[in-house]
Amino acid sequence: MPISGKHRRPKSSTIARGVAAAGAGGAVIALPLLGAAGAHAAEQAAPVAHSAAATHAASAAPVANKQAETRTYSVVAGDYLSKIATDNKVEGGWEKLYQDNREVIGGNPSLIHPGMKLTLGGSAAATGTTQAPAPSKAPVAPKPAAAQSSSSGYVSPVPGKHTTNYRASGANWSSGSHTGIDFPVATGTSVKAITSGTVVTAGWGGAYGNEVVVKHADGHYSQYGHLSALSVSVGQTVSTGQQIGLSGATGNVTGPHLHFEVRTGPAYGSDIDPVAFLASHGISV
User: Fold this and answer.
1) Which of 226, 257, 259, 281 is catalytic?
2) Are the CB atoms for 235 and 270 separated by under 8 Å?
3) Active site residue 162
4) Whether residue 25 has pLDDT greater than 50
């Protein structure tokens, strides 16, 4: 049996609205207590909350707009679109970066030059970015030594003698041996086409860094790797001794130099002895 007096009814909540009191003559008069103040507070709370939300939204808008602003990136030697997109966390990767800057870069996404201005996070056309500057020219300075030339219509790609020999072995090369020869020239040295031909590759070549490959009339190809800047584009016809780029240290290198190959095809793995090939055309390197 329940024990009386141990359980109490909860207090009526009507005190929050008012209390009824008997007045003279037995009439019932409603005396407002907390109800009026509570109702007034409730009426005021909504506009105050709305005002605070509006103020917060207004203050957040400039921040959001600032975050949405596009940024400008200046290409440096050794850059390529995938690297730029990753380093700068571009949504959509290099494809989006190329799409936004196609008017600046042109039809070949592999062909970007130091000094080129790219927009990150928006279209270059929308931000008024201008066309890319012309490829860097060789620095004007006294020539240390002229590249060799011969009456056969061939020249040395750069002045001086090569160092690392063709087919030198070692762990530095993924194939186990050197597929070309190296010329120890400083960054910015003008690199020449050994003879006339048509450019079939001009852009990023992985371990070769920025590279140019030229197809020649006799069916051979010459390749120039680790360039700091490119001066030609795919499909362009070049003449003997024409500058195709500037030497550098892009790609898999330990220092600035020109990596030079002669090939029977345009791709890696079709190399032949470049020293013997040049010698057959009167060029000694």
Assistant:
1) 257
2) no
3) no
4) no
